Amino acid sequence: METSKTCQNKKYISCYLTSDRKRLGFTVIIAALTCIFSCSASAENISPVAQQGEYVARAADCAACHTLPGHDQFSGGLPFDLPFGTIFSSNISPDRDHGIGRYTESQFSQAVRQGIRADGAPLYPAMPYPSYARMTDADIHALYIYFTTTVRPSPETPPASTATWPLSMRWPLHVWQAFFVPSAEQARKSTARFTEDDMLARGAYLVEGPGHCGACHTPRAMTLQEKALTAQESAVFLSGGNSVDGWTPTSLRGENRTGLGRWSEVDIVGFLRNGRTARGSVFGGMTSAIVHGTQYLNDKDLSSIAHFLKSLPACDKDQPPWQYSPTETIALHNGDTSARGARLYADRCAACHRTDGYAYPTTFPPLAGNPVVMNPAPDSLIQIVLAGSTLPAMRSSPTTFVMPGFGKTMTDQQVADVVSFIRASWGNDTGPISKENVRRLRKFQSKIISHTQIPLN
Amino acid sequence: MATITRKSVNVVIVGGGWAGSIMAKELTEAGQHVVMLERGAERSTAVDGAYPTSLDELEGNFRFKIFQKLQKTTVTIRNNITQTALPYRQLAAFLPGEGVGGAGLHWSGVHLRIAPDDLAMRSTVIAKYGKSFIPDGMNLQDYGVTYAELEPFFDKAEKVFGTSGEAYTVNGKIVGKGNAFAPDRSDDFPLPPLKDVTGAHLFRKAAEAVGYHPYSIPAANASRQYTNTYGAQMGPCNFCGYCSGYACYMYSKASPNVNILPALRNNPLFEIRPNATVLHVNLDSTKSRATGVTYLDDKGDKIIQPAELVILAAFQFNNVHLMLVSGIGSPYDPVANTGVVGRNFVYQNISTTTAWMDPSVYTNQFIGTGGGGVAFDDFNSENFDHGPLGFIGGSPVWVNQAGVKAIAAAKAGGPPGTPRWGSAWKSEMIDTYTHAVRMDAHGSNMAYRDVFLDLDPTWKDAFGRPLLRMTFDWKENDIRMNRYVVGKIEAVTKAMGARRTHLGMKEFGQPFDTRFYQTTHLGGGAVMGDDPKSSALNRYLQCWDVSNVFVIGSNAFPQGTGYNPTGMVAALAYWSAHHIRMTYLKNPGPLVPV
Questions:
Q1: With contacts defined as CB-CB under 8 Å, which chain A residues touch B238?
Q2: Do the domain assignments include residue B591?
Q3: If you count Cβ atoms within 10 Å of the first and of the last residue's Cβ in chain A, which end, N or C, has fewer?
Q4: What is the ipTM of this complex?
């Protein structure tokens, strides 16, 4: 068992790893918003295998990185800002010259599960092939049929990588892959370890395999590989990831305060389907995972995911259970705003989130007892205060809710004050933050605010 | 400027407000391909209701951000047939909306059903008081539809709007302290009533003490968070007072944008085209069948949109205007007393009474809800004996504190006779804003032969069409009604313990004045009924003369009622849609034989 030192949420992680997986910036959220209505391939007249493939593509959330708003479906082009330059997701439509139209099924499988292109070059691990390695042959086959027979070929060419030699060389990735990418066979075996509980087995498959939840929610080592790819390897699996674009993925394990300890399976299913539950609403990078992916999964699969996640014990076992404390509520009701940030909270936040911090779920998410609020890393909370957040419409919950951003009307000090108040109120026990915490996150704001798509309700 | 003919669709809907959105939802459910044309822009809570910047009284209530811009088209107004009408160039007396959501985005939220007697006012008055009771020149009419027929659609609309209220009876059983005069309901309100603000609380107690029957005004301002029948969600109202004239940042005021359009926008059968100004409905050579509409898009191109069914769901007078410029139905001529389009144009008859409470009572007028409050209906509709009074109509009386904001409070100042500036103005204004309770007599306005809408012979809009002309003035019957009901308020303010009361009432001989806001509750002009000689639409809101045109809105009211129109408009929209779905689509043609 790993010690709590490696549980991601135990200490504040100050380094921003920009070279891992997705650039989960606002572009993705906007992609999500516009694609929800335009990207769903019609299921008319397509074969059952292709339909299955479409379902797998959603479970694997291919569109989040490979479909951009205003562009053809799966034509790529999502930028990933890495220290050595910007790379772009590739066109995976079946166009013979610009996409994967010339791929055989085994080349396709090799790319998805091992990160090896048809020409033998290694793919950047922004593509979560260490997780996809676990996908079954049947799913890979269905995915191949879907991409080659149903998706429309697109001649769009994503921009070329801006990396320059020698950093543009891909061959060192072979070495990385040799160390950190399991063979497909080995990976499938380790994920197919549950034989008696069908739901656990299915849940583990979806989470560790196509769902690639660990790509964001498992901490990464200095060498950028996920510290564990499966639940059986280590309790750091899904214990909370490194910051990506200023968003800090939370633990999906059983921590009482910072994980899913107080979430029920019903909460998790509702969250993955609607992006909103009594416990909280989706924001940041997870938004695209729900918009493109999980909202399309059937009840059984969502329940299996929830069942599996709820089977993961806390990594950080030392958290005292969260219990609501009315101290701040009583003070605010008495007009006492002497606590740091209390006055700002009453003026800017309480209209929707209430003075008692319970808010009005599922309309406006609660702050009292919310694992995101109690995450030692304040990044997500600061980002939401600065830039606001959009909870997009889902198939079964058509309402979009928008929280306004306060980045233009509040100083770094004010944001730090109000975030500190939220982190310390109603039984939340997380420490204060400084204006430097806020200043560092302002750099992500240009990306987040510069959106043109506005939710229309 | 090109002329482009678009691909034909099943249904074209003119107007993106409540009526249009309800029709679009219903008809897409019936498998129809629907295109909705809205002359204004898209609207978004994220922008128009941005918090806190949208809470701007100057922008919202004085620069009319989400209301109609009058530069391109307006109406002309005169008081009587001997005058020359002039264009309404600045918004004041009434405030039509513009943009997706229409008036349904800027409304307050009062969501009432209709008094059953109001639906059959002519029959009721004749039965109770005899035909001679109806004054000369008053065009008193029945709607041609009964409350029992409309009840399921009132119920349906309330569940879509997330209406907060307290019922009196449900299925004949008394269930709560709702309006004792209200007709029976098939189900309770979807949400409990909003809480009383101080003024409403005092008014409720006093009205009860006097012997009246106070009730919570049904309001489409959600008292709790709510998910409606379409899965659309509302937040709970926090009494911020920014309802009328604003997009609600809490998502708690019902609007087409929040309550219906989210369930339509991802439907491939539905398309909304903003910035599309419909110029006229196109008719075939027989003039008995519409072939579609012609509109201008934002590039200035003229678009012909063919359709099998045309739904006019614009604002009341725009529906009438479109019928007149398109040649649908015969235009009303008040002199010859012929024709129906433009006939029975009505308004609403409102006056405000103010009571000043003891200085120890703070009425907090800055908080409020657009639709919430306390009313009594003892002097509304036929709830009281008009025999000895000699007038027709009535008023609910209410405290409907919708949030008095700073500029409005300063403009209102103190009681009549207070100086308009200086220290006396200041102290009276502060006293009034801090301690006063305002209550309205929100009365009906009857229809008259010489009050009507027609096309102006002189003035044209930016598109070359004649402007619609309003000929309107207050009439003795309605002024007497107002003065009678307002007189009844005095006992209430006394029981409230008011130290001073100003009874606001209409004065005889005071003409309709367009410079002051009264209400946007305009009605009639293309009314529903059983007789093609006195109504433009049959009881299903279908044009008598052009059976594939339905006209939905308060234009269908044969005369005014004491209630706000939106509840009735929504119920009529669902009623009409139901009959289009059940009967018309299977067998297109007149739903009532002519």
A1: 351
A2: no
A3: N
A4: 0.90
Q: What is the pLDDT of residue B538?
A: 98
Q: Which residue of A has its CA nearest to B254?
A: A457
Select the residue of B42, B225, B240 nearest A456 (Cβ to Cβ): B42
What is the β-pairing status of strands B397-399 and B374-376? antiparallel
Chain A residues inside the 8 Å CB shell of B43: 456
Query: In angstroms, how far is the first alpha carbon of chain B from the final one?
Result: 41
Domain assignment present for A5? no
Q: Which residue has the tokens 């979560």?
A: A128
In angstroms, the CA A310 to CA B505 distance is 67
Are B395 and B483 in contact, with CB atoms under 8 Å apart?
no
Q: How far apart are CA A69 and CA A81, in angstroms?
A: 19
Number of domains in chain B: 1
Please answer yes or no on whether A401 and B42 come within 8 Å at the CB atom. no
The range of the structural domain enclosing residue A441 comes to: 327-449
B250: nearest CB among A37, A352, A390: A352
- How far does the CA of residue B54 sit from the closest CA of chain A (Å)? 11
* Mean pLDDT in consecutive groups of 10 residues from the start of chain A, 457 residues: 48 36 39 40 74 97 90 91 84 95 96 94 91 96 96 94 80 86 87 88 96 95 91 95 89 97 98 97 93 96 98 95 97 96 96 96 96 95 93 94 92 98 97 95 66 67
Q: Please report the residues numbered 404 through 423 in chain A whose beta carbons come closer than 8 angstroms to any beta carbon of chain B.
A: 404
| Cβ pairs bridging A and B (under 8 Å) | 77
3-class secondary structure, B293? strand
The CATH number given to whatever domain includes residue B169 is 3.50.50.60
Return left, alpha or beta for B561; rule: phi > 0 is left, psi -120 to 50 is alpha, else beta.
Answer: beta
Residues for chain B: how many in total? 594
Q: Is A400 on the interface with B (CB under 8 A)?
A: yes
The residue of B36, B38, B42, B51 whose CB has the most chain A CBs within 10 angstroms, and thus the best one to mutate to test that interface, is: B51
Tokens 């309309």 map to which residue? Answer: A363
Sheet containing strand B466-471, edge to edge, reads B86-87, B75-78, B466-471, B452-460
- For A62, the token pair is 């291919």
Please indicate whether residue B521 is annotated as part of the active site: yes
Residue ranges in chain B modelled with pLDDT below 70 = none
**Residues of A in Cβ contact (< 8 Å) with B257:** 456-457
- Quote the domain boundaries for residue B324: 3-48+100-584
Tell me: the pLDDT tens digits for B436-487? 999 999 999 999 999 999 999 999 999 999 999 999 999 999 999 999 999 9
Give the C-alpha separation, A251 to A319, whole Å.
13
Which of B502, B521, B578, B579 does the annotation list as catalytic?
B521
Residue B53 inside a domain? The answer is no
Number of domain units in chain A: 1
Token pair for A178: 């040799």
User: Is B366 part of a structural domain of the chain?
Assistant: yes
| Cβ pair A364:B43 closer than 8 A | no
Q: Tokens for A94, please give them.
A: 């079946």
Residue of B nearest to A38 (CA): B266
- Give domain status of residue B211, yes or no: yes
On whether residue A15 sits in a domain, the answer given is no
Contact A351 B240 (CB under 8 A): yes
